[in-house]
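We now fix the convention by which a protein and its fold are recorded. These numbers are not coordinates but entries in a learned vocabulary of local backbone shapes. A record is reproduced here so that you can trace the correspondence yourselves:
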Amino acid sequence: MRTAVLASNVSHPLSEDLRRLVEGGLDPDGPIVAPLDQAESVCARHRPEAILVVLSPHPDRALAVMGKVGLPMGGPVLAIGPTADPQIILQALQHGANHYLDENDLPKQFAAFLSRLQAKDDAPAKAPGRVVAVLGASGGCGASTLAVNLAVVLAAERRTCALVDLKPGVGDLAALLDLKPTHTLADLCHSTARMDAAMLEKALAPHSSGVRLLAPPQKFQDIRLLTPRAIQRALEQARSHYPFVVIDLEDCYHEEQIMALRLADAILLTARLDFTSLRNTRRLLDHLGQLDIPRERVSVVISRHGQAKELPKAEVEQTLSLKLTHLIPEDAAAVNGANNTGTPVVLKSPSSRAAQAIVRLGKSLLPAAPAAAATPSPSKSKMLRWLAPFC
């Protein structure tokens, strides 16, 4: 089991003891040991299946990091600290720990944890679902339309799919599915500590396609309930019960949006072949890199492909240093007709060019996403030369 040990001082005797215990019984290859200020980037890159956080000597700092770090596989989070102060134990559980070990009795308590983990491993395990995040590079890129239709395609392949609208106050996935949810993400976040599978199912709005929608709060005063920890808990619950979870993201800089990006197995960045959209695409790709999100998880999806005067695909590939393998053609009649009636285009007009392209994209998500590759081009247009300084 790939494991990360996070501590204020990685050379402290307690950190060293923990490293040896992990290597001896949990992770034979040895854990990733990282200081707290590198925890988020290390976990985003290496995606450990278990996280152990040393609280001493700075519990507040360690607890803050624990609340931000998510586990893509929903594995165990262990807090190691003193037991003299029950408030620290309570805070650790509130920040996401599901095990608390006494630092003064570490070998014995760690052995007991391993025994419980082994008993759990002996039971049949259900593979966690894949998380697909959809992010628009600019307005008019069809990110929400893509998210809805992808969810329908994946539901057809796996009989069901969870769809999460992470655009508080402005999300429109319910309208695109002609649904009127009675519960929202705010209802789940209001009871984070008690959130379980039954609460999740109650909050999801069912669609006839097999898609289950988790809608955002429509009242602006409820947006404050959407804490990163609560959303992480909801996403972990969703991926543990659904084969796919599709997330329609608002941006890539708010804390809860970054958490969702780091949790994602695949990130689809939608863009158009015009200067402003591609400039934003370049900046977003750089930003995702700064968040230590591996490039192989990110794919650029070109929407409305084939419009007059758009930039040449081959030259864009050279400028962005990636292969554009996902192209959704301009098909305004079919897409607008579907969106305006609340029926996904893959259902309303399955033979349309846009629907067929989305179906191909959805099926490509079933196996591992292909690695990006550079495509050379002999020349650049005038507009792409203007774009080059941003690349």
